[in-house]
Request: fold
Amino acid sequence: MSATITQHIENLDWSLHTESLNKKGYAVLPEILSDQQCKQLATSYNDNTLYRSTIDMKRYQFGSGEYKYFKYPLPDIITQLRQSIYPYLAAIANDWMSKLSIQQRFPEQLEALLEKCHQAGQIRPTPLILKYHTGDWNALHQDLYGKVYFPFQIVFFLTQAQVDYTGGELVMVENRPRMQSKPIVLQPDRGEAVIFTTNFRPVLGAKGYYRTSMRHGVSEVRSGERINLGIIFHDAQ
Ligand SMILES: O=C(O)CCC(=O)C(=O)O
Ligand SMILES: [Fe+2]
Reply:
């Protein structure tokens, strides 16, 4: 694994990000990717040897825009990010399962989670790269892809808001049982990343922990071109 990415991930303030995930269901990671890395990943959108499929979002009524799923073996940088971030999130995931009295526990290393996916017939890689132009958007959704799913995912911003595009905010909606939903709207800088809840998280109420579920999407891009990298940890059916 590349020392620089692993080191960089180790040096993040994980107690701060853990607190943010526990309190809000998301955390913004500062300056994860360099401008050069963002540029390289964004350019690789056009290299079709890297992908297993291309999705026209309009065709599936997912919104408007296009995305591509990477094939295995993933580009090194994606493998490194996925492997080095996973253990921090697995610890939080297990704490969440225990708070919600759910038996399930997640392994400490990504390889073991992927093994579980494979045993469940989920063998296709899920990291993806998304490209939106003026007028494009992404409907609110969840990325579960099968019985085995990890409660966190990450989206990396490869283009710069107000420079490369306007609009195109990352939108999250938290469904609170018997209450109105909470909207969250973020527009991080290029190189930053947002970790968020894939499905649900524990919230402490008067009678103990209850679940709130989260969906995410992207508001309409008003101008320009917006390219993001999504890292989902479980494989798909
Ligand atoms: O384009 C975005 O910011 C969101 C992409 C997305 O839905 C994902 O990464 O799962
Ligand atoms: Fe998504």
About this structure: The domain at 3-232 is CATH 2.60.120.620 (Jelly Rolls). The longest helix spans residues 76-99. The radius of gyration is 17 Å. The chain has five helices and 14 strands.
